[in-house]
Amino acid sequence: MNRSFDRWASILFVLVGVFFIFASRNLSETAYGSGVGPNIFPFGLGVLLVIFSVRLFYETFQYKDDTTQGIKLDWKNFSIILIITILYICLLEWFGYVLCTFLFLVIAFQIMERGKWLLTILIAGLFSGGVYYVYVYLLKGTLPSFPLF
User: How far out from the chain centre does Cα 114 lie?
Assistant: First the structure.
């Protein structure tokens, strides 16, 4: 961990979070056919970003040293995660939320930690299905449902 970088990053992220909070207030509060408006998600992200940034800033005062020696960046895994994130965004409407999110999570979990296929499939399935159920059926929001093919 680099103390200076983390402090400046936390300050920048607080500003971005505050921007999200204020910008989300300009969005409509409800959408046609949905009980959850388009302002909820950016507002929530802004609040979370501010909270986590303040925590990061606080943690920088507890760092033992300011060295970053010995840290090896894993560009291969980063590149794969970036590519599957872009594919996730592009294919979300076509594959639907549940299937696309499930595949994205399975691939991402396997890149981060190989093996444990049963646990990976279980967590990815419960997460993608659970979020879809909560958002669509309980909150009355809309998500791309199932594949178009």
Answer: 21
Query: Residue-wise pLDDT tens for the chain (149 aa)?
Result: 577 888 889 999 999 999 988 888 887 666 555 566 667 778 888 999 999 999 999 998 887 765 555 667 778 888 999 999 999 999 988 888 999 999 999 999 999 888 889 999 999 999 999 999 988 888 777 888 777 65
Alpha-carbon distance of 16 to 22, in angstroms, equals: 10
> The pTM is what?
0.63
d(CA 99, CA 127): 11
What distance in Å separates the CA atoms of residue 54 and residue 18, rounded to the nearest whole number? 12
Same domain, 62 and 12: yes
Domain enclosing residue 62, as ranges: 1-71
- Distance (Å, whole) CA 104 – CA 123: 12
Instruction: Assess whether 29 and 63 both reside in one domain.
Output: yes
- CA Rg value for the chain: 19
Do 102 and 41 sit in the same domain of this protein? no
